Amino acid sequence: MGALLSLPLLALPSVGTLVTFGASCCGAATCSAVCSACGKFQSSMATRIAYAFILLINSIFSWLMLTPWALSKLEHLTLDYMKIKCLGEACTGYVAVQRINFALGLFHLIMALLLLGVKSSKDSRAGLQNGYWGPKVIVWLGFIVLTFLIPESFFQVWGRYFAFIGAMLFVLLGLILLVDLAHTYAEFCLEKIENYDSKAWRVLLIGSTLGMYTASFAMTILMYIFFAGHNCSMNQAAITVNLIVLLIISFLSVHPAVQESNPKAGLAQSAMVAIYCTYLTMSAVSMEPDDKMCNPLVRANGARTASIVLGAIVTMLTIAYTTTRAATQGFALGTSGGHTYAKLGEEEVEHGMIDQQPMSARREMRAEALRAAVEAGSLPASALNDDDDDDSDDGRDGKDDEKGGTQYNYSLFHVIFLLATCWVATLLTQQINDIEMTDPNFAPVGRSYWASWVKIVSAWLCYVIYGWSLIAPVVLPDRFGH
Q1: Looking at the predicted structure, is the pLDDT value of residue 11 above 60?
Q2: 210/141 Cα distance (integer angstroms)
Q3: Helix-strand-coil percent breakdown of the chain, rounded to 5?
Q4: Which one, out of 38, 70, 78, 192, has a CA that is 20 to 30 A from the CA of 45?
Q5: CA dihedral defined by 124, 128, 131, 136, rounded to 10 degrees?
């Protein structure tokens, strides 16, 4: 069974090189040291990248286990002497994908429970999140091996009900965060324009808005040309509905009633929502089966391969972005609670007069005050040691940016990763028997009507969420502070 763990390295030698390099780094501590040299990343960022990398490897492993190709390569390495079986059954297909993602999901569930209530790196449990990478990887791989000892009937129920529900929650979460990103981006640009009268930010805001609308209409035209033939009523309906709703939400964003309740609403937000929803629609029609001759990409091998690779990259980037943003922006989900998470650079903006002094001068003044207090007997001598620790772990030095407070909710972070594993498993296995296997070695990702309809409905739902974010301040003015 241990031979299964090397499957991802057989398919992608470049990934194998990355894994070898990552192992030599011994986890996020070394990554943080490397990143701190460029002065842009802190240890919390390196930790999130490490978890995202594990999810990426797990997803590739799941995809490879859809077909017998990887196992046949392993058997070939033994000159076909060893036949790999899992309790007498085949180790590939629907159940194998559910096993692998269940293992990583179980790992994140345990981590979420262990890290409940951690508010800073001073908590001894914070080390579980940011360290112990060797043991954590071993536990993750051990879970994968153990899942192949669980009867298939369990994963039939898990994949059909529990993983499916988790996948839908993950999709909904991504849509909410996309709308939140659209508002945050536009409001940030407007704030820069208002405070600094910056022409550069004005050009960026106007240029990006025009660019996203142009791209949305260009994709719509391409969809009508290539994917909306005479017998393609599903595609015609999806493309037309997307175009109509795009125009409606654009008009709604500049409606006088909306502008009065929320002056910062405008075309910049609707442009970002429009291009994302149009991309979802285009992805849906370009990944559907070709049984009605509506998908020319399936008949073009080069384009088909390119679309599969591009779709996989975008999917993984979306998962990584969603998990990271959900963990660090708890307010978007209403989970801020009573705990205020530390933000990078927060101390520098809290005190206006002190902010004008160099960091070294501030440390010196604080050290002198502590020494005077110790000499006067009002503080114990250990206070000087505590101050030294605080200085050595200053966020600007890149050693510990979470001593005063975590950058994100650890438990929420792992819950989102749990939902991500459910989405990966569901995406790979829904209607698996109906997927057109144009290549016997590799199964296309998401080439089913189920996956296409999920993307189409997700685009519609995203429009609804964004539309409600515009209308809500109008119909419920007491609930909003505009």
Answers
A1: no
A2: 47
A3: 75, 0, 25
A4: 192
A5: 150
- pLDDT at site 250: 94
The pLDDT, as a whole number, for residue 141 is 94
Structure tokens at 406: 């975590």
Report percent pLDDT > 70 for the chain.
61
pLDDT of residue 471: 92
Rounded-to-integer distance, Cα 66 and Cα 432, Å: 9
For tokens 């902010």, the residue is 355
Q: At what angle do helices 43-64 and 13-25 cross, to 10 degrees?
A: 150
CA of 47: how far to CAs of 32, 39, 417, in Å?
8, 16, 13
Angle CA(48)–CA(93)–CA(22) in degrees, nearest 5? 30
Instruction: Report the pLDDT averaged over residues 80-108.
Output: 78
For the residues of 292-328, what is the DSSP string, one character each?
TS--HHHH-HHHHHHHHHHHHHHHHHHHHHHHHHHHH
Q: 112 and 411 in contact (C-beta within 8 Å)?
A: yes
**Tell me: the pLDDT tens digits for 282-314?**
988 887 877 778 878 766 655 455 555 565 666
Amino acid residing at 4: L
Q: Is the dihedral of CA 154, 157, 163, 166 positive or negative?
A: negative
pTM (global) more than 0.70: yes
The predicted structure's pLDDT at residue 468? 93
Q: Are 447 and 311 in contact (CB under 8 A)?
A: no
Over residues 41-57, the mean pLDDT reads 80
* pLDDT band at residue 361 using 50, 70 and 90 as cut-offs: low
The residue whose two tokens read 């990934």 is 15
CB atoms within 10 A of CB 385: 10
Name the band, by pLDDT with cuts 50, 70 and 90, for residue 396.
Answer: very low
CA 443 to chain centre: 23
Q: Closest by alpha carbon to 313, among 100, 27, 59?
A: 59
Distance of CA 283 to the CA centre of its chain: 18
- The two structure tokens encoding residue 8: 């991802």
Q: What is the pLDDT of residues 427-453, one digit of tens each?
A: 888 765 555 545 454 555 656 788 889
Residue indicated by tokens 């040291």: 33
Lowest model confidence (mean pLDDT) among 61-70, 123-132, 240-249, 422-431? 61-70
Residue the block writes with tokens 């007997």:
377
Q: Name the residue with tokens 């990702």.
A: 445
Q: At what angle do helices 163-196 and 301-328 cross, to 10 degrees?
A: 70
Do 349 and 355 touch, CB atoms closer than 8 A?
Answer: yes
At residue 90, what is the residue type?
A: A
Q: Which of 239, 208, 237 is nearest to 222 (CA)?
A: 239
Residues contacting 464, CB < 8 A, separation 6+: none
